[in-house]
Fold this sequence. Notes:
By secondary structure, the protein is mostly helical. Helix content is 92%, strand content 0%. The longest helix has 54 residues, at 2-55. The protein starts with a helix and ends with a helix.
Amino acid sequence: xxxxxxxxxxxxxxxxxxxxxxxxxxxxxxxxxxxxxxxxxxxxxxxxxxxxxxxxxxx
Length: 59
Protein backbone atom coordinates (compact mmCIF):
# COMPACT_ATOMS: atom_id res chain seq x y z
CA UNK A 1 0.00 0.00 0.00
CA UNK A 2 2.80 2.42 0.90
CA UNK A 3 4.58 1.61 -2.35
CA UNK A 4 1.42 2.40 -4.35
CA UNK A 5 1.07 5.76 -2.59
CA UNK A 6 4.72 6.47 -3.28
CA UNK A 7 4.24 5.55 -6.94
CA UNK A 8 1.15 7.76 -7.18
CA UNK A 9 3.02 10.65 -5.59
CA UNK A 10 5.93 10.18 -7.97
CA UNK A 11 3.58 10.01 -10.97
CA UNK A 12 1.88 13.20 -9.83
CA UNK A 13 5.27 14.87 -9.48
CA UNK A 14 6.24 13.83 -13.01
CA UNK A 15 2.92 15.08 -14.37
CA UNK A 16 3.41 18.41 -12.61
CA UNK A 17 6.94 18.79 -13.94
CA UNK A 18 5.76 17.87 -17.43
CA UNK A 19 2.95 20.42 -17.21
CA UNK A 20 5.42 23.09 -16.06
CA UNK A 21 7.76 22.27 -18.98
CA UNK A 22 4.86 22.50 -21.45
CA UNK A 23 3.81 25.83 -19.96
CA UNK A 24 7.37 27.13 -20.22
CA UNK A 25 7.59 26.08 -23.87
CA UNK A 26 4.24 27.70 -24.68
CA UNK A 27 5.27 30.88 -22.87
CA UNK A 28 8.55 30.99 -24.80
CA UNK A 29 6.73 30.48 -28.11
CA UNK A 30 4.31 33.27 -27.20
CA UNK A 31 7.18 35.60 -26.36
CA UNK A 32 8.77 34.86 -29.75
CA UNK A 33 5.53 35.70 -31.56
CA UNK A 34 5.09 38.85 -29.50
CA UNK A 35 8.68 39.95 -30.19
CA UNK A 36 8.17 39.38 -33.92
CA UNK A 37 5.01 41.51 -33.85
CA UNK A 38 6.86 44.33 -32.06
CA UNK A 39 9.74 44.18 -34.56
CA UNK A 40 7.33 44.39 -37.50
CA UNK A 41 5.37 47.23 -35.88
CA UNK A 42 8.57 49.14 -35.12
CA UNK A 43 9.81 48.67 -38.68
CA UNK A 44 6.49 49.98 -40.01
CA UNK A 45 6.62 53.06 -37.77
CA UNK A 46 10.21 53.78 -38.79
CA UNK A 47 9.29 53.35 -42.46
CA UNK A 48 6.42 55.81 -42.05
CA UNK A 49 8.66 58.31 -40.25
CA UNK A 50 11.28 58.04 -42.96
CA UNK A 51 8.72 58.57 -45.72
CA UNK A 52 7.11 61.62 -44.08
CA UNK A 53 9.77 64.16 -45.14
CA UNK A 54 9.70 62.78 -48.68
CA UNK A 55 5.97 63.47 -48.90
CA UNK A 56 6.58 66.98 -47.63
CA UNK A 57 4.30 66.47 -44.65
CA UNK A 58 5.06 67.85 -41.22
CA UNK A 59 5.49 65.46 -38.33
